[in-house]
Amino acid sequence: MKKVKTIRKKCEGATMLVHYQSLILLLGIFLMVGYGLYQTHIRGKIPHIRRIAALEAIDEAIGRAMETGKKVHCGLTHVEIFGAYAIQSLASFALASYWARKAAEYGVPAIYTTDTIPSYPIYEGLIRDAYVSAGKLEDFNDPHKVQIRVMTGPYDLAVAGVLQRENVGAGLISGEVGRYVLQFGEAHRVADAFSIIGMPIIDKLEWSVATFDYVFMLSETYAAGAWITKDKTQLGHIIGSDIATWVAIILFIAFFVVANILGSPLTFLGR
Amino acid sequence: MAWFKEATYPAILATIVGFVILFSFFYPGTFLDQVSSKLVNWATVMICVIVWVGVINVVRSAVREVKERVPGRWYVALIQLFLMAVMFISGFGEGKNSTAPGAPTVINWLFNNYFYYGALGSMALVGIWAVTAAYRAFRVRSAETFLFFIGAFFVLLRNAPIGGVIWTGFPIIGDWIMNTPFMAMQRGLTVGLGIAIVAYALRYYLGREKAAYGG
Which of A40, A247, B18, B129 is 20 to 30 A from B53, comparing alpha carbons? Predict the structure, then answer.
């Protein structure tokens, strides 16, 4: 313990390093992700990833909308492109991209909305790319096939209006949905639309499970990109984050046991 | 300029910028921190430009819908264009302080009397949906939903003042649910989520997650 304290003092004094516990944890996770990459790239081990139900439901949702002659809707809410929610936004963009590609492949008229003006160009760009990769650029340019809208103000109400007015058969909502999750869920139910939600944050997760047909639950939202592409590097990251999660679980249990036997051995970690 | 459209180059740029900003957090007051502040300032300026790109795209799309008389939408697009023009002219015409709280300007009047109350009214309309959604959520269909119902029952009566009046045990049980099983679940999920976010960020920094720029 004395040695650890000396190292801590040296670190703080010599390099102005702060939040060193966070840095150690971060580098630890990076190391584990590196091990995951070693497994997939050097050893060629391709991991089995359990199917993500919500991702498979996207095909079903869009297919059903096509069969019933209805439109599909994809809405992104609070997708900030920098700041605290940037990573969540990137995960939501990945889901929207997949949704757009499937809508393009099936040829279903689609409506894309967001309430975040600065993200609009990125949103439009990725939808365009999805239609180009599906070989349907002419659909993207046809306002009867693709609508992209920015809807500020009470976004949940605006989405409800779109779902009912435009005869939408399936919808995806993603982003920092927060307390509006109930309204979004009910809007889909009232419009009789198949509903899927991407929940990259923990807030109101339980409500999303209760009101939506399918939910991308937390880390599933981040793993979806790897599942879609089956890219070796991305799969390596999944292995790494799984190892890190197991390490966290073991540490939780170990600290719980040690803390109950020795009192509080965590003075070093809890400043 | 074809090279610029390749997703690889934005990915390299994102990697460098991402790592600089990430590690500047651990070294405050150093050169890395100064570079990071500059980059964040640049991002703020870029967002101002991006807003304009968004406005132009919205106008272009609305004009196209009006010109092509898209059924069911052209008149909505027309109203949208009109309202955008009104807010734009009033905002720009009255200067940069026109949106200051209490300023006697047209844009403030429009916001406070039209947008604000309109938004509040519409929020009240969807309020009933929260009730119907809660009703659907609380229907007991399995063992899990039964547990969900029991937990929500005690927590609702803990938060509602009438709960403590009916029985003093409701706030105690509600507090225990919030502080013990709920907290344990929340912390476990938060740690798992944090790890997933770090791994995802690293994937993004290494340029393997290209969805945001069309990869």
Answer: B18
